[in-house]
Specification:
Strand order of the largest sheet: 1-2
Shape: extended
Number of helices: 5
Number of strands: 2
Structural class: mainly alpha
Number of domains: 2
Largest sheet: 2 strands, antiparallel
Radius of gyration: 17 Å
Distance between the termini: 33 Å
Amino acid sequence: MEHLSPERWQQIQDLLNEALECDAAARDEFLERACGRDSELLRQVRSLLTAHLNSGPLTDEIVAPVVAGFGPTDGLEGKTVSHYAILERLSPCAITG
């Protein structure tokens, strides 16, 4: 995987968020216009968009085995697990909707 500069990653995130706000029928046209001749940017945003749209909800069946591997989660705030920064503990309401 290529290294992305913080500016490039922000550009990708911004376009992804804007594309998600578009009607499904207008997304492709929006992305082609927004990315212009930058085919790599278009590929990266489309890849993330596809992954986002194809991902299902986080259910207990998916989350429980992953969380079980970490043991107690108290005190993880501010720490890094793998390459993920743990910012704050989510309430059960935030996880289940």
